[in-house]
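Hey, quick one: can you model this chain's 3D structure?
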Amino acid sequence: MARTIIGRRKEKEILVRALDSSRSELIAVYGRRRIGKTFLIREFYEDEMVFSVTGYSKGNRAVQIKNFMTKLNEVTEEFKDNEPKDWIDGFILLKKFIISLRKRKAKKVIFIDEFPWIATNKSGFLAAFENFWNDFCAARTDLVVVVCGSAASYMVKKIIKNDKGLSKRITQKINLRPFNLGEVRDFFEHKNNPIIEYELLKIYMSLGGIPEYLEQVQKGESAVRTIDRLCFQPGAYLEDEFDEVFESLFESSSFHKRIIDVLADGKKKGLTRNELLEKSGVGTSSGRFSQSLTELEISGFVLKYDSYIGKSKETLYRIYDEYCLFYLQFMKPFKGSNWQQLYQKQEYKSWCGYAFETICLKHSTEIKRALKIEGIASKNYTWSNPKAQVDMVIDRDDNWVNLCEMKFYNDEYTIDAAYLKRLETKKREYKTDKAGRKGLYITMVTTHGVKSNKYSTAVVDHDLTIDCLFM
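Sure thing. Here's the predicted structure for all 471 residues.
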């Protein structure tokens, strides 16, 4: 590995196991654009890679085959006079090249990047690749074949859930997700650009953990100036990213965007599937809607989670991608504005609370680690009734429940007599509806902690700051 790969612990474990296994491995890697898929594979497998090719965006079959042969001719001079008429011929040449390589115990890696760009309709690429794997690679023990793509809908339907030539042939899959906050901190420290956690949190709430976005953050620049430069100034780096992301990820982005728009305009706690259907204006039996919603979940744009209304359970959906939420809340309606003025408005302060809550839901594992309960089986959900609501419930198998309150504030958070009464109401109402004989803890997760006074000491059992989210 030539360069340090930040984070990606579980993914690197998968890649190591593929090298150490006693069979050939077929790995499918997918995730949104700019997430670092190509970087991960190329850097991790730098020493083992014997052939790699990246598809041409919108290139026809002839262009793709020419590109394939150009890359093959970079690693061998044997086929310089060959002009394959189709993909079957192309893979025959790739087989010959692999056979010609010196035998060694170490695995040889073949990397096909942006696979969906090559495997267009009627190109014959997918069928030829299926035959290449089944007839050649699977019969050997010394190959790791990695196929990668940003088009989540294609990768899931055509590769991972393929019911034909690749049915159950994928040996490992990697759905690459954005960095969590701890990885973002490590990223900037590695870049020799340390940033205090409160500023990191503000950047994360707007840009999320997309490595390529984070690459644009300049040393010594505040979160406010960074967001203004990347999102609001003329020709800003992320000005058109929303549309480009959806066009690159999904075969037809119309339903995906409609769902995101409805969620952005809907209740902050989320919407049920029926509410989404109704507000989206599609038929109640729309298979295309269901497929689009599932693809948004798989790609990390939408969170599906449990919520209780009193004793009744329902499933809710909410936007889970920080950049998309920020774009729809501020970049789209305030295009051309100055963020250094916008962020002081009440709309931003209100939005911060919701964005912070979503980030806490995303970092529930870190919160449990800070509470020293990560080894206890538990389930997370939200809860409400007409008298009270709880942002996140950690319902534990040891007969205790953490009622978590998330508050984004620029200083210590002060609990007064009125808020003390609200917290006591939450405990009482939840106890009546859900807790039974379980014990209840009030757990505060705030940016800078809770100010100690007679009200906080009377009700707060755990006082966590944003430090816990970086664990």
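One thing worth noting: The CA atoms of residues 149 and 155 lie 7 Å apart.
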